[in-house]
Amino acid sequence: MAKIVAGMGTSHVPGVGAAMDNGKTDEDYWKPLFEGLVPLRKWHAENVPDVNIIVFNDHATSYSLNNYSTFTVGVGERFKPADEGWGARQVPDMRGSPELAWHIVECLMADEFDMAVVADVDLDHGLTVPLSIAYDQPDEWPTEVVPVCVNVIQHPLPTAMRCYKLGQAIGRAVASFPKDITVGVWGTGGLSHQLGGERVGVVNPEFDTAFLDNLTADPLANAKLTHTDFIRDAGCEGVEMIMWNVMRGALSDRVEEVFRFYHVPVSATAYGAVILENVQGSNA
Predict the structure, then answer these.
(1) How confident is the prediction for the chain on average, in pLDDT?
(2) What would the pLDDT profile of 161-214 be if each residue is shown by its tens digit?
(3) Does the annotation mark 227 as catalytic?
């Protein structure tokens, strides 16, 4: 049977991908960030699953604001990097996992989650930057992916609790998949940041740290946060953190944090990353 082995939460700041793509990772501004990612990349090199389920949001690139579903699963065989207005990133296409993706869709629908489904879609920095963070610049990504797009752009948004419950349903779906494969689940976006308005550039390390702590100590506390909590304490775009709840919900009730990194600033935002391994013997 399929098995979820670990989860990762990571910011998907587009500047991180641009720094890699343009050879700027050794510059003074970027060097501390990429040095901090060395242990994360080492862990990923030693723990490559067959498939990564990557929870992300499209930034009005492939999805129009007048047609943005709450939850969408990508079931295609291959996905290209999206052109976000300055040309597509020069990274490999992403290999899909259609059999697992369709199984997840069918299980989620039976579990009363009304999922949208897409096969032919280009994926923007919300998904390609996390792949670059984990796997650097390979000729081919080492795993297949199942993209799960969450609407954190166009109100009304799903609640943090709904995202946590979606993750639990994804965990059950993977556990019932009949093939013997290993699976990672990634939540992306955040941490605290705001890109416009009077509070542009706001960063809240105290809130971010509490959220990261709760991923292991009290995940339901994160799931009970309201949209107002996120907007007030983490900035308007900090609401992306609800996607980390999908990742956490998919894991076992008990997890071990094996990596954490927090760095400010990264393009006027807070960068955060965490890796959580399932504790053997705990309930999925």
Answers:
(1) 95
(2) 999 999 999 999 999 999 999 999 999 999 999 988 888 889 999 999 999 999
(3) no
Confidence (pLDDT) at 282: 62
**Contact assessment for residue 184 and residue 7, using Cβ atoms and an 8 Å cutoff:** yes
Q: Please give the Cα distance from 175 to 263 (Å, whole number).
A: 35
193 is catalytic: yes
Cα-based distances in Å from 205 to 16, 134, 186, 208, 223:
19, 23, 21, 5, 19
Torsion over CA: 35, 262, 190, 141 (sign) = positive
Query: Do residues 161 and 223 make contact, with C-beta atoms less than 8 angstroms apart?
Result: yes
All structural domains of the chain: 3-278 (3.40.830.10)
Cα–Cα dist 84/22, whole Å: 16
pTM over 0.85? The answer is yes
Exposed, middle or buried: residue 161 (CB in 10 Å: 0-12, 13-18, 19+)? middle
Which residue in 103, 193, 227, 263 is the catalytic one? 193
Order of strands, edge to edge, in the sheet holding 51-56?
116-118, 71-74, 144-150, 51-56, 182-188, 3-10, 269-278, 255-266
Catalytic residue among 12, 44, 103, 125: 125
Over the range 204-221, which residues count as b (16 or more CB within 10 Å of their CB) and which as e? beebbebbbebbbeebee
